[in-house]
From TrEMBL:
<dbReference type="InterPro" id="IPR007278">
    <property type="entry name" value="DUF397"/>
</dbReference>
<protein>
    <submittedName>
        <fullName>DUF397 domain-containing protein</fullName>
    </submittedName>
</protein>
<dbReference type="Pfam" id="PF04149">
    <property type="entry name" value="DUF397"/>
</dbReference>
<feature type="domain" description="DUF397">
    <location>
        <begin position="11"/>
        <end position="62"/>
    </location>
</feature>
Length: 68
């Protein structure tokens, strides 16, 4: 079975990052997980994270008390 060309990922930043900052992690949904990259180095490496691991990570973040 061959895999055809994949569509380019649609990258987004957290709404908490603000529009004037470049120091952020960008994410892209793949349907099977999430891709992560450094917004300052968009042409650099990408970290793939499987769906269940990403879900666990986000769930843990939401349970933490916000830091100020």
């Amino acid at each position: 079975m061959s895999v055809g060309p994949q569509p380019a990922p649609i990258w987004f930043k957290s709404s908490y990052s603000g529009s004037g900052t470049s120091e952020c992690v960008e994410c892209a949904d793949t349907g099977h997980g999430t891709l992560l990259r450094d917004s300052k180095r968009a042409d650099g490496g990408v970290i793939p994270v499987r769906g269940p691991a990403w879900h666990s990570f986000i769930t843990a973040l939401r349970q933490e008390e916000p830091r100020r």
